[in-house]
């Protein structure tokens, strides 16, 4: 029992530097899944053109879109990361597309 407790304490002390995915039900941790990318949330002032359900192009805050898509229901903090499991190829914007 003593050993288990010590082990937990050890893990806690190193968890600060350990990155994990914030998405509910996802257990990706950088230590265990180094093959995944861990994305930080976009800053509050980053916007993008988004086509809504009616085909209208609207400028939205990227962070708002992320929160909506992930349905995380938790406040976004500076260390909050989302792993690449929740993105598709199309979600990645190349620098060329950003300039448009
Ligand atoms: Zn994830």
UniProtKB/TrEMBL annotation:
List membrane-spanning regions: none
* Entry coiled-coil feature ranges: none
- Subcellular location(s) of the protein: Nucleus, Nucleoplasm
Question: Is Zinc one of the keywords UniProt gives this record?
Answer: yes
- Keyword Metal-binding applies: yes
Enumerate the SMART domains for this protein. Answer: THAP
Which residue ranges does the record assign to the THAP-type domain? Answer: 16-100
Q: What is this protein called?
A: THAP-type domain-containing protein
The record lists the organism as: Zophobas morio
């Amino acid at each position: 029992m003593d050993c288990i407790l010590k082990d937990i304490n050890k893990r806690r002390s190193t968890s600060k530097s350990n990155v994990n995915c914030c998405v509910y039900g996802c257990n990706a941790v950088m230590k265990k899944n180094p093959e995944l990318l861990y994305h930080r949330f976009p800053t509050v002032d980053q916007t993008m053109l988004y086509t809504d359900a009616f085909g209208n192009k609207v400028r939205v805050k990227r962070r708002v879109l992320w929160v909506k898509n992930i349905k995380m229901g938790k406040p976004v903090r500076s260390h909050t990361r989302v792993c690449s499991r929740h993105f598709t190829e199309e979600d990645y914007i190349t620098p060329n597309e950003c300039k448009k």
